[in-house]
Every structure is written in C-alpha cells, then in structure tokens.
Automatic annotation (TrEMBL):
<dbReference type="InterPro" id="IPR011008">
    <property type="entry name" value="Dimeric_a/b-barrel"/>
</dbReference>
<dbReference type="Pfam" id="PF07045">
    <property type="entry name" value="DUF1330"/>
</dbReference>
<protein>
    <submittedName>
        <fullName>DUF1330 domain-containing protein</fullName>
    </submittedName>
</protein>
<feature type="domain" description="DUF1330">
    <location>
        <begin position="2"/>
        <end position="95"/>
    </location>
</feature>
<dbReference type="InterPro" id="IPR010753">
    <property type="entry name" value="DUF1330"/>
</dbReference>
Length: 115
C-alpha cells in the first residue's frame, strides 16, 4: 500500500543550504521509489490556519518511506533543511480506492454524547 512522507514546513529560510538540499534530495528518493506528489505550491486554506508549505512524497510502501528517511544519503542532507526551516515530518500509510470513510469506525473508541 502506498505510503507518504509528509512535511509541514511552517517557515523556510531560503539560502545556499536550502538550495543544496533541493539539488540533492531527488537522488536520495530514486532508490526507494519516492516521487513528489505535492511540492512548492502554497495551499489554499479552506478552514482554520495553515502557515507555510506542505511537501508530500509518495513511496511504494511504509518500509520504503522509512528506509529512505533513515538512509545515509538522506541523513547527510537532512541538516541542511532542519537548520533552515521550522516544521514537522511524518510518514503515513495511504488507503486503497475501495476505502470508505466508515472503515475507520471499527478502530474508534465511540463515546456517548453528553446529555
């Protein structure tokens, strides 16, 4: 099942280190089947606040996403980004085309509404 490495970058200081990071990241993705799904566009905020940018990289599965993030090649360039940005990074597993919103109900602790 497809997995995604997602970064919410609330602020980025554009400088030579960020340029180097961008120049080197593509080569770190290729061995793990990673491809950019979302990168560089400012989001259209429909509700609430969402400062910054969103980056989404798709991988064949969560194992490949974790292996990419932990790889010596990516770890070598990661400080170029973390020294020059504020944000969070996560890995999530995608769902298939047959997924329904109600599929998550089984895993929810359902509480009775307050009366």
């Amino acid at each position: 099942m497809t997995a995604y490495a997602i970064a919410h970058l609330r602020s980025v200081t554009p400088n030579a280190e960020i340029v180097e990071y961008l120049q080197r990241i593509d080569a770190t993705l290729a061995p793990y089947g990673g491809t950019f799904v979302v990168h560089g566009d400012l989001p259209e905020v429909l509700e609430g606040e969402f400062p910054g940018h969103l980056v989404v990289i798709g991988f064949p599965g969560p194992e490949e996403a974790r292996a990419w993030y932990r790889s010596p090649e990516y770890q070598a360039i990661l400080p170029l980004r973390t020294r020059n940005s504020d944000g969070a990074a996560i890995i999530v597993q995608g769902v298939g085309p047959e997924h329904l919103a109600t599929d998550v109900i089984a895993g929810l602790p359902i509480e009775e509404p307050a009366r």
